[in-house]
Amino acid sequence: MQLIDTHCHLDNDRFSPDRIEVIDNCHQHGITKMVVPATDSSGWLQLLMLCETQKGLYPALGLHPMFIAQHKDKDIKALQKWVAEHRQQVVAVGEIGLDYYDKQLDRKRQQKLFEAQLKIAQDNDLPVILHVRKAHDRVLKTLKRNPVKGGIVHAFSGSEQQAERYIEMGFKLGFGGTMTYDNSRRIHALAANLPLESIVLETDAPDMVVSSHHGERNSPEYLVEILAALAKLRKESKKDIAKQTTKNAINVLSLK
């Protein structure tokens, strides 16, 4: 089976001691492609170099809403330049979006940054990787005004109605380690009921670890456990789910 982790931060310092070993283990488990989204401008160069030197890694460049305080106005112009110059390598603009969960994050500035990055995605005919917490309706309204070439809603936790609206706009919905916890009933229901053609797998490593490694560093290697959890919820074979979710990821991000 071929699997794709559509969201992992392998450039994170927590992988510095064993990054190559982790990537090799992923390939041995059939996880042949991993998408690595950026969080801030200081990490773009390292991320691109990592993805260029390691087989199966695909970069996305963007400015994460949770780090709004450290983003500078000049970062948008820099992002325009970096995406244009590395258009053949970059598969999406991300990780971008709105985070209303943390009340201390400046919402007006988040909105301005989000719309500016959607414009960069439009100009470069790229999909986006969305980070959305407690802000799905606002994100959907923003996307309606600023349509893009689809993308992935990372760690989807909205309603079925919101999911349908994203799907209509060409988005896939990311499901990860949360599915492996017994008390995640809302996520279980979404993962079981949404169309498989609209689902992609992800780990968000080193965060959002699977239940079997609770309290530890998450790893893209654990994508196989996320696959198993989804197969159990949907009462479908791991082989069929792997085939369809891999196809979904390849199509939405135009992976080669």
The overall pLDDT average reads 98
Write the CATH fold name.
Answer: TIM Barrel
Can you tell me the number of structural domains? Answer: 1
> What level of helicity do the residues show?
40-55%
Which stretches are low in confidence, meaning pLDDT under 50 for 5 or more residues running? none
Order of helices and strands: EHEHEHEHEHEHEHEHH
Helical element count?
9
Relevant CATH superfamily: Metal-dependent hydrolases
Main sheet?
8 strands, parallel
Oligomer: single chain
In terms of DSSP E residues, the strand content is 15-25%
Q: What structural category arises from helix and sheet content?
A: alpha/beta
- The radius of gyration over CA amounts to 17 Å
What is the terminal separation in angstroms? 17 Å
CATH architecture: Alpha-Beta Barrel
Which of globular, elongated, flat, extended, rod-shaped describes the shape? globular
